[in-house]
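Predict the 3D structure for this chain.
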Amino acid sequence: PGPADGISKDEVHFRAAQALVRLAAGKSPTALPHLKPLLSRSPEKTSLAANYLMALDAEHAEEICKCVFEILDSDRFFTAWETTWLLRVLQQYPASIDQGQAAKLHEYSTNEDQEPIVRVEALKISGRLGSLDQLLIRRLWNSLSPVYKPDLLASVFFARESATWCEPFLDAAKEDAICVVVLRHLENEHAK
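Done. Predicted structure below.
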């Protein structure tokens, strides 16, 4: 894109953003094959792309998961926020995550070189998959900033039906007033 093509770079960015918003409103999967090249050229569109993906119907879940992992597996550098946005998409479609993708999520959550926000986002998905590592959760609970405790709590809440250690952990967390509020919110959301 550029003046030689007749459209300025700013106009291309504007049109891409506008298209993602419209396609999200229409729940159209048309943009799926174009997201990886779009984000490789315009990483600032990651939040728009993530919102687009989250707007799609669950019938496209496998395609969405494949798309997200293809983007994440590309060779370019991702900021923690970009990665977090893309991982957030996967929370809506845990049943469509295959074993290889689950292993990649495990890598994100255990890699100490990853930013904490990326690690806890990956753990929330692992919780939905029922594959949380109790020792990792305990270590992160004790070492990360308190700002991440609600997310860690959510990951344990999501895994509670598949791991017996989760309920005692959640009970112990109720000693903290903020955790009580977070758990109440999670329980209300789960009841819907």
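The mean pLDDT is 93.
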